[in-house]
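Quick illustration, no need to memorize.
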Amino acid sequence: MANNVHELRPKAADSEKITINLGYVDLGHIDLLVQEGFYSNRTDFIRTAIRNQLDRHNDAVRKSVERHQLDLGLRHYSRQDLEAVQAAGEVLHIQVLGLASIATDVTPELARLTIASLHVLGALHASPAVKEALKDRIR
């Protein structure tokens, strides 16, 4: 980096990459719809199909989120957040549907002292060392 340019914080991705396997006939159908202009590309088709299924099951998902008391969306835990939990003599039971992120300056020791359980439906962003320290607490 140039001397006058400083990276403040790496930008978090707003999506997670997944890989799927499709049969050749299904893939051909998707390619035909893309070729005919119904979708801009394969990814557009797949995202639309997923959103349609999520909309179709919206009531069941909403009820399940309420029943399991999940935080919905993005939940970030900074070192200061975890130090405050530690100072209060408490522990966290983290339950997130979406993205849970633990700051890169959180040590594995601090994570183990303050996070009693971690249940993430979606993605967890944390350092490899913190993930390793919490592996027995991740559901």
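Strands lie at 71-77, 92-102, 115-125.
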